[in-house]
Amino acid sequence: TEAGNAPPSRSSSNSKSGPNKNVKKGKKRKLNKQSREELYIAERKDRYNKLHHACSKLLHREGKVVKSFMCQKVGKEIKAAQEKESSIQGSEEAATELTAKLLAKTQKRRAKLELKLEQTKKFELSSIVDVGLKRLGVLNLMSDDEKDATDDKKASSKPSSSQADNPFYVDLIESMLQHKRLSSAMDQLNDKVTDFRQWSTRRQTMLLGEDDPAYVDQFTGGNKKRKKQMQQDRTNETLVFAGGKRNGRSMGGHEGTSGLFIGSLSG
């Protein structure tokens, strides 16, 4: 009796578990299913965030190096002014009126250089990042609605209004951007921005022509079955030379299977 009761219990368990598994699989497929446009928007947002991060990181790094160079340059000028000032004070003609004017001029220049050095040290690197992103057009690649709320956190903090409106820092930014390190960095990042624009244009074209399989093949790599069929067609074309000609060219007696090698060479 025990053996006779065993099979019904198995069948009942299978009948219960089978439909539930199918339902769960069906639900998963529906949740994971996304349209091409949704996939494009998600990928575009991800690419933009990576581009924004790469541009900000490189501009900040190179800006830090150029800022250090600027400070060193001003420091050398201050040192030269101090040496000149000490030489004037130690000269025999220090009491003359002409020497006194030269000394005052040198001291005034040294004071300006010291103020310049102090302001340069206080320069916020976020300013150079912000200007660089604007000139590259990175901030215009995505609309405000498309950007993530976390983009503002990832982006560098905006420069203070005192620096943004200060003519000294405006001139300093222009001088820094003309430096070869930042200039080459801007050229490198401009290529990245161009690549992003071209990729976005191609994907938009693909979405507009999504019913045409040619667009899908060109931008998504194509269907494996279609690729296999194209390879098969090329093989058949190579093997079939019944008339002794291929694309209007004489095969010189190598038609049929003997023309396989020549057909492969001719492309």
What does the model show?
Helix 2 packs antiparallel against helix 3 and helix 2 packs antiparallel against helix 8 (180-208). Strand 1 and strand 2 (249-250) form a beta hairpin. Helices cover 75% and strands 1% of the residues. With 267 residues, it is mainly α. It is built from eleven helices and two strands.
- Give, in order, the helices and strands: HHHHHHHHHHEEH
Write down the Rg: 36 Å
- Show unreliable segments: 11-16, 152-157
Largest sheet: 2 strands, antiparallel
- Integer average pLDDT: 75
Secondary-structure class? mainly alpha
Overview in brief:
By secondary structure, this protein is an all-alpha fold. The chain has helices at 2-32, 36-89, 97-121, 125-136, 151-154, 161-164, 167-177, 180-208, 213-220, 224-239, 260-265, and strands spanning 245-246, 249-250. It has 11 helices and 2 strands.
For this entry, give a set of tags.
2 strands; two-stranded antiparallel sheet; 267 residues
Q: What secondary-structure arrangement, pairings included, does this model have?
A:
Layout: H1 2-32, H2 36-89, H3 97-121, H4 125-136, H5 151-154, H6 161-164, H7 167-177, H8 180-208, H9 213-220, H10 224-239, E1 245-246, E2 249-250, H11 260-265
Antiparallel strand pairs: 1-2
Helix pairs in contact: 2-3, 2-4, 2-8, 8-9
